[in-house]
Design brief:
By secondary structure, the chain is of the alpha+beta class. The protein is 35% helix and 24% strand. It has one helix at residues 48-73, and strands spanning 14-19, 28-33, 39-44. Strands 1-2-3 form a three-stranded antiparallel β-sheet, with no helix packed on it.
Length: 74
Protein backbone atom coordinates (compact mmCIF):
# COMPACT_ATOMS: atom_id res chain seq x y z
CA UNK A 1 0.00 0.00 0.00
CA UNK A 2 1.32 3.44 -0.88
CA UNK A 3 2.10 5.93 1.89
CA UNK A 4 1.26 9.62 1.46
CA UNK A 5 4.50 11.63 1.38
CA UNK A 6 5.03 15.37 1.56
CA UNK A 7 6.80 16.59 -1.58
CA UNK A 8 8.63 19.28 0.38
CA UNK A 9 10.10 17.43 3.38
CA UNK A 10 9.24 13.75 2.69
CA UNK A 11 7.16 13.62 5.92
CA UNK A 12 4.29 11.17 6.34
CA UNK A 13 1.96 12.93 8.78
CA UNK A 14 -0.64 15.51 7.91
CA UNK A 15 -3.05 17.75 9.82
CA UNK A 16 -6.10 19.92 9.28
CA UNK A 17 -5.77 23.68 9.75
CA UNK A 18 -8.64 26.20 9.42
CA UNK A 19 -8.00 29.31 7.31
CA UNK A 20 -9.89 32.10 5.56
CA UNK A 21 -8.83 32.82 1.96
CA UNK A 22 -7.92 36.43 1.17
CA UNK A 23 -11.02 38.42 0.24
CA UNK A 24 -13.38 35.69 1.44
CA UNK A 25 -15.69 35.65 4.42
CA UNK A 26 -16.01 31.89 4.82
CA UNK A 27 -13.50 29.49 6.29
CA UNK A 28 -11.94 26.50 4.60
CA UNK A 29 -9.88 23.71 6.08
CA UNK A 30 -6.39 23.22 4.71
CA UNK A 31 -4.66 19.86 4.74
CA UNK A 32 -1.00 20.49 5.48
CA UNK A 33 2.14 18.56 6.31
CA UNK A 34 2.58 18.29 10.09
CA UNK A 35 6.33 18.63 9.74
CA UNK A 36 6.86 21.62 7.47
CA UNK A 37 3.35 23.08 7.02
CA UNK A 38 3.35 22.69 3.23
CA UNK A 39 -0.24 22.86 1.92
CA UNK A 40 -1.53 19.64 0.39
CA UNK A 41 -5.15 20.53 -0.33
CA UNK A 42 -8.25 22.29 0.96
CA UNK A 43 -11.65 21.12 2.14
CA UNK A 44 -14.87 23.08 2.15
CA UNK A 45 -16.23 23.58 5.66
CA UNK A 46 -19.43 21.85 4.54
CA UNK A 47 -17.48 18.57 4.70
CA UNK A 48 -16.39 19.15 8.32
CA UNK A 49 -19.23 17.07 9.86
CA UNK A 50 -18.32 14.15 7.61
CA UNK A 51 -14.64 14.52 8.50
CA UNK A 52 -15.44 14.62 12.22
CA UNK A 53 -17.63 11.54 11.89
CA UNK A 54 -14.76 9.67 10.23
CA UNK A 55 -12.36 10.79 12.98
CA UNK A 56 -14.77 9.46 15.59
CA UNK A 57 -15.11 6.13 13.78
CA UNK A 58 -11.33 5.80 13.51
CA UNK A 59 -10.98 6.63 17.20
CA UNK A 60 -13.52 3.94 18.12
CA UNK A 61 -11.74 1.37 15.94
CA UNK A 62 -8.41 2.31 17.52
CA UNK A 63 -9.86 1.92 21.01
CA UNK A 64 -11.21 -1.53 20.18
CA UNK A 65 -7.89 -2.60 18.67
CA UNK A 66 -6.09 -1.46 21.82
CA UNK A 67 -8.49 -3.53 23.95
CA UNK A 68 -7.89 -6.57 21.75
CA UNK A 69 -4.11 -6.09 21.94
CA UNK A 70 -4.27 -5.78 25.73
CA UNK A 71 -6.42 -8.90 26.02
CA UNK A 72 -3.94 -10.84 23.89
CA UNK A 73 -1.08 -9.75 26.15
CA UNK A 74 -2.85 -10.88 29.33
Amino acid sequence: MAVATCLRCAGHSFELAPFTPLGASHKLTMIQCSGCGAPIGALDSATAPQTNALKNQIGAIDERLNRIAKALQD
